[in-house]
Amino acid sequence: MTTLTILPSATSIAVAEGDSLLAAMLASGAPVAHKCDGEASCGQCHLFVIEGRKGLSRISRAENDILDTIVGVGSKSRLACQATLTGTEDVTVEVLSFV
Ligand code: FES
């Protein structure tokens, strides 16, 4: 299990290896926008990874293509629906858009 901390609420939850950030966050009740339900097409689940980048899967070409279309993307940007927890280290994310 990995600890996922969600900012700005500072909520911490235990998550299983292999879960996407989006699935883990929704299961915990965290309000994160996800119009396309994880199909990597809406970009609403964009968030910043504050700590624990190595605790997440690598960015795929599909994820990178969507990130390229979003205003405000930076080096810490990920799509919650595409980033999968690897279980190697705890992760802290900052949610940028809410439902
Ligand atoms: S939920 Fe739409 S891109 Fe992630």
UniProtKB/TrEMBL annotation:
Q: Which residues form the 2Fe-2S ferredoxin-type domain?
A: 2-99
Q: Please indicate which superkingdom the organism of origin belongs to.
A: Bacteria
Mind telling me which residue stretches traverse the membrane in this protein?
none
Co-factor(s): [2Fe-2S] cluster
Give the keywords, sorted. 2Fe-2S, Iron, Iron-sulfur, Metal-binding
Q: What Pfam families does the database record attribute to this sequence?
A: Fer2
Which family is this protein grouped under? Belongs to the adrenodoxin/putidaredoxin family.
Please report the name of this protein according to its UniProt entry.
2Fe-2S iron-sulfur cluster binding domain-containing protein
Its source organism is: Novosphingobium decolorationis
